[in-house]
Every structure is written in structure tokens, then in C-alpha cells.
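#structure-requests
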Amino acid sequence: MGLVMADKMDFQKAVELINKYKRVLLTTHTRPDGDACGCIAAISKTLTALGKNVKILLLSELPAWYQFLFEQKPEIFSKKTKIESDLIVIVDTATYNQLPGFDEYLQESDKPILIIDHHVSSDNIGDVKLIDSSAAATALIVFDLLKYAGWPITKKIAEALFIAVSTDTGWFQFDNTDSKVLSACAELIDAGANPSRLYRDLYQNCSPQRFKLMAAMLNTLELHRLVNGKWKLVTTNYKLPITKHQLPILAVQHLTQEDFKQAGAKYSDTENLINECRRISGVEAAALFVEQANGQVKVSLRSRGSIDVCKIAQKFAGGGHKMAAGAYLPGPIENAKKLILTEIAEQFERSA
């Protein structure tokens, strides 16, 4: 799919839709990340200040480190959830398979839907869409919406948007950190966001359970080098730095149900763990396989840019970005690994 960018008319339609309704439901994709949580928090505070009756409904548990963005813990969706809102706002996704359970409600509901997202989807969800696939984070689109509408950006709103942008750019490490990102963050800092305090709240506030889970994950690390179209396991005593002719190297890790039990950790504790192995010299791509309670396997994919992991995820009804994507695969883990390693090998071969 090509580049999609919202225009002034789209922003005007979004403002008119929000102004029209009093009761608003906010939601996002399952396993909400920093961009999703920051956007939900910022929009919720904005609409509440406008006198709206706002209900936040998440499809899975809120990661503990994003709890400080919310005054109250958001409600978790279930089949018994009573929805009385007049407008539904969905952020950071426009794909039915990222809205498990809630997708059925959406397809049966006649309530208007506003989509705010930086991913391109073919599901055609939404009566009004604010989609900009060039934006590094959905929060940048939300920021533009608030400025277009002239709605106040308080310190709390600025903090929520800063968290959203910074997490989706790897705290400004990823290649999607462009001038628009830095310019927007400068404005958010001027509005009250404190980067050093927010960094401490996010990255120096983890639970012991998350660290135990990370240790379990690191113990499964495998490094694979593509040789003549086939993956060859790299021995642990290889020398650094990796020279160019030895590339590409793929880092593979996994977590089982037993790992979660032993660590006392939750699924939300896996967020960003995949990034740990990207510190290794020569790693061009990474895959983390997480066994689910229902037997499926969630795969998270990362790339330094030499391959498009979103294309791989889309083959399995997943999605994301060129350098960060994910999907659900049939288990067991070894089966999921074979599927993904085959796809990554083909991508590397085509990009060589």
C-alpha cells in the first residue's frame, strides 16, 4: 500500500464529528504500547476538558509503566461490557484483527467511528479517518488535531503525547526520528513535558518480574547467519565486530508459558524486550516468539531497515511498520519459527 496522508478536510471532519457527540468511547489495539496509551490518555483529557463523557475501554491489560498517564485504571473489554457511547474513537490501528472481540461489536454497530492512525489498512474501518502513514507515531496526528482545533494542550496532555512519540521512535533511536518528531517534541517540552522525568518513569521503574522474564528470554538467544539462502547457527564465540560479508544476522528468542509462570510476569511485561538483542553487533533483524495461553504464538519482528518486516507480518494477518511489526501464528513455537525464518530469508535474498 502506498503513502496515505490526512488533509485539512479530514481534520475538519474529525473536529465536527467530535463536537457533535457528548458520549465518547476511546479504544486501541490489543496489547497497547506507548503510542496507543499516550494517545488515549491525551485524547481522554482533551475531551473531558471539552465537557464530554469519556469512556476508555482497553482490549487487554494496561502495562504497569503506563498507568501514571491515567487518573483511573481503564476498563478492560469483555462480552459483558455495556457500551452506551455515541461516538467511537479508535487510535493506532484500523485493523479488525488487532481488535479481538471488539471487532464483532464494530461490525454490528451503527455508531460513527473516528480512526486516528499512522498505519495503512485495507479493512476500511471508520466514518472519518485521520491517517498519515508518514508519521512516526499516531501521537503526531493527535497533536496536529489538537492544534488544528485550537484545543488547549496542558502539561498532562503534553506528557502523554511525548511518551507516545518517544516510545514509537525508541526514545529517538529509530530511523523514523525525523525533523517533525523533534519539532513536535520541542513544542511538547515547551508545553510542560519533562523528558528526564518521563524517561525515569518509563525505563527505570520496572518490576523484578519483568527482569526475571527478560533473563529467561536472553537465555534462549540464537544468532543465525544466512548462508546461500539457508540459516546457519552462529556459535557464541564469534568475534566482534561482524564484518559486512558475514551479514545478515538474525537474532531469535522465545518465551513459553512456563517462563511467565516462573517469573511471575504478565504478557504486558514483554513490551520492548525484543529490542535488547538489537544491541548485538551485526544483528540486522530480530524475532521474539511468545507462547500464548491458547496455544498460538505471538511474534514480534524488528529490522534495521534492510528488510520490511511489516510485509512479513501482513502475510499472517498481522501488521506494523517496515522496521517493527507483529503477528499471531499457529503453535508450537518451533513451527512459528520455521514460518518466520523462511519469510525473513526470502526477504534478505530479495534485498541482497
